[in-house]
Design goal:
Maltoporin, Chain A; 22-stranded antiparallel barrel; 8 helices; 43 strands; 6% helix; globular; disordered N terminus; ion transport; transmembrane; transmembrane beta strand; cell outer membrane; receptor
Length: 877
C-alpha cells in the first residue's frame, strides 16, 4: 500500500470511529511543573483542538508527544459525559474493559479492569490486579476500592500495554492514572447538584482557599444516594417460610435490602500546596471515602440435574461416595434427594449423615436440624422448596432473593509530594503515601428464598509506599532522563464466608497476607537530531510475599460423606476410616490435628519474585505535528496462592507463579489542518505467558498458571474540530486475544459441556470483545445574551465477549449499542449551568459480570444499569 493510500485509509477510518474525549476541553494542569506555553490555551480560543498535558513518562508533556498509546480525559469532558467513576471510562477508551464489580463481590466499588485482553476479575487478597490504578502517583494495590469516584480530577490517563518500566508492579496490561486538581491561587467555589432516576441525589463541591501567596489549599466533598434498580419480590409459595433464615449460618454480616444496585457514598479530599517560587514545592493530600454501593445479582440458570459423586447407587463400601460420578448427585441434586426421599431410600445410599444435621460439634451455634424426608414425612407444614429453575425470573430488575445484600467500604489515605529543583536541569521528586481500607460485603447469589449460594467477606488492608524520582535533561535538552527507586509494603486479611446447599458446605476462610517490594527503574529519551528519538528503559523488581490460609468447612461434609460421623451430625476425626485401617482425619488428608475441619495447610507460606522489565523505543518526527513510533517492552504480574478451597490440601498450599507479557507496538500521532484534526493510531502484538486463570474446581474458584495467549490488535483515535463550536471525538478498537496453549488439567476441568464452551486453544480470552467503536459529537451554540447551549451525544458499540474463563453460555456478554446524551445551558458569566441528560437511552441490557458454580447448582450474573435520566445544576463562583 502506498503512502497516500495508507493516509487515506487512516483518515477515513478515523472519521467513522468513536470519541476519545481526550482533547475537547481546556488543558489540565500537570502534576509537576510544565512550561505554560506547552498548554497553548489560545488554540482553543482560535477554534482549534486544545492540548492536554500528561505525566505518563513522569514529566509533563503534551499527550501528542508521548510514544505510548494513551486515552486522556479532562475534567470537563468527564463531567459532560456523566462519567463519575473509573468503570464508566470503559465505553470511551478503545480496547479497554472496566466493570464495576467482580463475580460474587457484591460491591460496585470493586474494579474488574482489562486493557488489551490482560487484567483480573477477582477481589481476593491473594490475587493482584493486572492493570495498575494510580491516584496522584500512588499505587492502589487492591481491586477493592479501585473503582474510584472521579471527584475533582484534573485528568485521567489510560495507558495501554505493559507499563512496568516507569509504573512498576502489576501493570502488565496497562495503567490508569488519576490526577486530582491542585488548589487555585484565588478563592473559588465550584460544585453541582444532580437529581435523577431511582431517587438519585448527588451533591459535590470544591473550595479553593489561598492562605498566603505561597500556601494554597482546597477542600472537596461528594455525597451520592440512589435506590437500587433490582427489586426483591416475595416468592409465592408458603414453603419459602420453612427455609432457615440466612442468619442461621456463619457470615460476615446479615444486612439485607429490598433493592439491589443502590448507592450511598460520600467522599472527602483535602490538598495543601506550598510553592514560593523557589527550588522546593510541597503538596500534602488526604482523602476519605465511604462507599456503600451494592451490585445487583440475578439467577440465570440452575444445574440440579447434573450427576455427581454423592449418594450414588454404586458407592464405595461404608461411604456415600460414588467414584464413577454417574449415579449420585452434586450439591443441588443431593439437597433435592434428601428432602424428597424416605428414610429407607436415604439409608440405602448411606446418605443419612449427608441429609442429617447441618454443622458439627465444632460450631454448635450454627447446627441446624435435618431436612431429610421433609417432603415425604406426612406433615405438609414442614415441606421444603426444592432447588430448580423456578427462581429464574428472566427479568434483570426482579429477584426472589431474601439473603444478605450489602457493602460497607471505608478507605482513606495520606500522601506527601516533594519537588526539589537541584538545578535548572535536574530535579528530585519524592512521593510518600499511606493508605488503608476496611470492607464488609454480602451477596445472595442464588436469587431465591433458599440458602444455596450465600457469600460474605471482610477485608482489612494497609499499604505504605515511597518513591524517589531523579528527573533531568542534558545536551541542550536533547536528552531527558528519569531514574528512580520504589518501596512498597502492604499487609492485611480477607475472611470468606460461603454457604452452599442449605448448609451442605459451609466455608469459613480467614486469610493473612504480607508483601514487601522494592524496585529500581530508569528511562532515557534521546533525540540526537530533530528527525529521530530513542527510548531505553528498564525496571528491576524484587518482591517477597507471605501468606497463611485458614480455610475450614464447618459442616464436615467429607467426614459425613465417608461415614465418619454419627446421626447427630458430630464428626469422628479419630474414628476408623472405612477404606483403610487409619483414622478418618488421616484418610481424608485433613492437615491440622488441632482443627479437624480445617482444609487449608497450616503455617506461613513464602514466595519470592524477581523481575527485570525492559523497554526499547524509536520515534520519527517527520514534522513538528507528526510522530511515528515503535516500541518493545515487557511486563509482569506477581504470583501467589489459591485460597478458596473446600477439600483438604494435606501438606501442600497450592500456589501459582507470575504472569509475563512481551509487547511490540507501532503507532502514529498527528495534529493536522491547523490544529483542526488530530489522528492517532497504534497496532500491537503481545505474547502472554503463564496466565493466572480462574477455573472452577467443584465449588472452588481455583487460580493456576493454566495457559498462554497471543494478543493482536489495533486502535484508532480521532478529534476533529471542522467548524467553530463543533467537536467530533471518535475511536475504533479491534483485538484478537486467544489461547495458544492450555494446561492439561485446565483443559480437563474447563472443557466444553452443556453449560460452557470451555477453556480451549484458539478461543477467546475473557472480558475482551473483538470490536469497540465510539462516536461522540459535541456542539456548542453561542446565544445572543453571551450564554451558550451545549448538545452532546455518545454512541458506543461493543461486540460480544465472554465474562468468564470457561465461557459459560448464560454469562456471555451480548453485543451492545449504548447511547448517552445531554443538553446544557451555560449562563453568560459562567457562574452557573443546567444540564439535562440520559444514559443508556435505548435501555440495552447485558451482563457485566457473573459466575457459574455447577457443583453448587447455580449460574448467576450482574446486569448493567437500565435507562436513566438526570438533571444537574452546576455553579462556579
Amino acid at each position: 500500500m502506498g503512502k497516500s493510500a495508507a493516509a487515506l485509509l487512516l483518515t477515513t477510518t478515523a472519521f467513522i470511529s468513536s470519541p476519545t474525549l481526550a482533547q475537547d476541553a481546556a488543558p489540565a494542569s500537570p502534576q509537576s511543573a510544565a512550561p505554560a506555553a506547552a498548554q497553548e490555551p489560545a488554540a482553543q480560543n482560535e477554534g482549534g483542538i486544545a492540548e492536554i498535558v500528561v505525566t505518563a513518562q513522569k514529566r509533563a508533556e503534551n499527550v501528542q508527544d508521548v510514544p505510548i498509546a494513551i486515552s486522556a480525559f479532562t475534567a470537563d469532558a468527564l463531567q459532560e459525559r456523566a462519567v463519575g467513576s473509573v468503570a464508566q471510562l470503559s465505553s470511551i477508551a478503545p480496547n479497554v474493559n472496566l466493570d464495576a464489580g467482580t463475580p460474587f463481590s457484591g460491591s460496585t466499588a470493586v474494579l474488574s479492569a482489562y486493557i488489551r485482553g490482560i487484567g483480573s476479575d477477582d477481589f481476593a487478597f491473594n490475587i493482584d490486579p493486572g492493570v495498575g490504578i494510580y491516584l496522584d502517583g500512588v499505587y492502589l494495590a487492591r481491586t477493592v476500592g479501585a473503582n474510584q469516584d472521579l471527584l475533582d480530577v484534573a485528568r485521567v490517563e489510560v495507558l495501554k500495554g505493559p507499563q512496568g518500566t516507569l509504573f512498576g508492579r502489576n501493570t502488565i496490561g496497562g495503567a490508569i492514572s488519576i490526577v486530582t486538581r491542585d488548589p487555585g491561587s484565588v478563592f473559588k467555589v465550584t460544585g453541582d447538584v444532580t437529581a435523577g432516576s431511582y431517587n438519585l441525589l448527588q451533591a459535590r463541591g470544591s473550595v479553593d482557599l489561598p492562605i498566603t501567596d505561597s500556601l494554597k489549599s482546597s477542600l472537596t466533598f461528594g455525597v451520592k444516594t440512589r435506590d437500587g434498580f433490582l427489586k426483591r419480590v416475595p416468592f409465592s409459595d408458603q414453603r419459602a417460610n420453612n427455609a432457615p433464615s440466612f442468619t442461621a449460618f456463619s457470615a460476615a454480616g446479615y444486612d439485607s435490602a429490598d433493592r439491589e444496585g443502590a448507592n450511598q457514598n460520600w467522599n472527602l479530599r483535602g490538598k495543601l500546596k506550598w510553592d514560593n517560587g523557589g527550588a522546593i514545592k510541597l503538596t500534602l493530600s488526604g482523602d476519605y471515602s465511604k462507599d456503600n454501593g451494592t451490585s445487583a445479582n440475578s439467577l440465570l440458570g440452575t444445574t440440579e440435574f447434573v450427576p455427581g459423586n454423592f449418594a450414588g447407587t454404586t458407592n464405595l463400601p461404608g461411604t456415600a461416595f460414588d467414584p464413577t460420578g454417574t449415579t449420585g448427585f452434586l450439591f443441588a441434586g443431593l439437597y433435592n434427594f434428601c428432602i424428597g426421599s424416605t428414610p429407607a431410600q436415604i439409608a440405602a445410599r448411606n446418605a443419612g449423615a449427608l441429609c442429617g444435621v447441618a454443622g458439627t460439634q465444632y460450631n454448635p451455634q450454627f447446627q441446624l436440624p435435618s431436612y431429610g424426608s421433609a417432603n415425604v414425612d406426612g406433615n405438609p407444614a414442614n415441606d421444603r422448596l426444592p432447588w430448580d429453575s423456578r427462581y429464574v425470573t428472566g427479568n434483570p430488575d426482579r429477584s426472589y432473593a431474601t439473603g444478605n445484600s450489602y457493602s460497607n467500604l471505608k478507605a482513606w489515605g495520606l500522601s506527601g509530594v516533594l519537588d526539589f529543583d537541584l538545578s535548572d536541569d535536574v530535579s528530585l521528586k519524592s512521593i510518600t503515601a499511606y493508605r488503608e481500607l476496611h470492607w464488609n460485603a454480602g451477596l445472595d447469589a442464588d436469587g431465591s428464598p433458599l440458602n444455596f449460594l450465600q457469600l460474605s467477606f471482610t477485608m482489612n488492608q494497609w499499604q505504605f509506599s515511597q518513591e524517589l524520582q531523579l528527573l533531568g535533561k542534558a545536551l541542550d535538552n536533547k536528552l531527558n532522563y528519569v531514574l528512580g527507586a520504589y518501596y512498597f509494603k502492604e499487609a492485611g486479611d480477607l475472611h470468606d464466608y460461603v454457604t452452599f446447599g442449605e448448609g451442605l458446605i459451609q466455608v469459613d476462610g480467614p486469610n493473612q497476607l504480607k508483601t514487601d517490594n522494592y524496585a529500581f527503574f530508569g528511562q532515557i529519551d534521546y533525540r540526537p537530531i530533530d528527525l529521530i528519538g530513542i527510548t531505553l528503559g528498564g525496571r528491576y523488581t524484587r518482591e517477597q510475599k507471605q501468606f497463611e490460609g485458614g480455610q475450614q468447612e464447618l459442616n464436615g461434609f467429607n467426614y459425613k460423606l465417608f461415614g465418619c460421623s454419627d446421626a447427630n451430625g458430630n464428626i469422628t476425626p479419630n474414628g476408623p476410616f472405612p477404606l483403610a485401617p487409619i483414622p478418618c482425619q488421616v484418610g481424608l488428608s485433613y492437615p491440622d490435628p488441632s482443627n479437624p475441619v480445617r482444609v487449608y495447610t497450616p503455617g506461613v507460606n513464602r514466595k519470592k519474585f524477581t523481575n527485570f522489565s525492559p523497554k526499547v523505543g524509536v520515534q520519527l518526527h517527520p514534522t513538528d505535528d507528526v510522530m511515528i513510533y515503535g516500541s518493545w517492552s515487557k511486563g509482569y504480574k506477581t504470583g501467589g496462592w489459591t485460597t478458596r478451597l473446600t477439600n483438604p490440601q494435606g501438606n501442600v498450599a497450592p500456589d501459582f507463579d507470575e504472569e509475563k507479557a512481551t509487547t511490540w507496538e507501532a503507532g502514529i500521532k498527528s495534529t493536522l489542518i491547523d490544529r483542526r484534526l488530530q489522528l492517532n493510531a497504534a497496532a500491537f502484538s503481545t505474547t502472554y505467558k503463564n496466565i493466572q486463570l480462574n477455573i472452577q474446581v467443584g465449588t472452588s474458584p481455583t487460580i493456576d498458571n493454566a495457559g498462554d495467549a497471543l494478543i493482536r490488535g489495533f486502535e484508532l483515535e480521532m478529534v476533529a474540530a471542522p467548524i467553530d463550536g463543533l467537536t467530533l471525538n471518535g475511536s475504533l478498537g479491534y483485538i484478537d486475544a486467544h489461547y495458544t496453549s492450555v494446561a492439561a488439567a485446565t483443559a480437563a476441568v474447563g472443557g466444553a459441556n452443556i453449560f460452557q464452551a470451555g477453556t480451549l486453544v484458539g478461543e477467546d480470552l475473557p472480558k475482551t470483545p473483538h470490536w469497540k467503536v465510539n462516536l461522540s459529537p459535541r456542539y456548542e451554540a453561542k446565544l445572543g445574551n453571551g450564554g451558550s447551549v451545549v448538545f452532546l451525544a455518545d454512541w458506543t458499540y461493543t461486540s460480544s465477549a465472554w465474562n468468564d474463563t470457561q465461557r459459560t453460555f448464560l454469562l456471555e456478554r451480548v453485543p451492545s449499542n449504548i447511547v448517552n446524551g445531554s443538553i446544557s445551558y451555560r449562563e453568560p458569566d459562567g457562574h452557573w449551568s443546567i444540564t439535562v441528560g440520559g444514559t443508556n437511552l435505548t435501555d440495552k441490557r447485558f451482563l457485566t459480570s457473573g459466575g457459574s458454580n455447577i457443583a453448587a447448582g447455580a449460574i448467576f450474573g450482574t446486569y448493567n444499569r437500565p435507562r436513566e435520566w438526570y438533571a444537574r445544576f452546576g455553579f462556579n463562583f
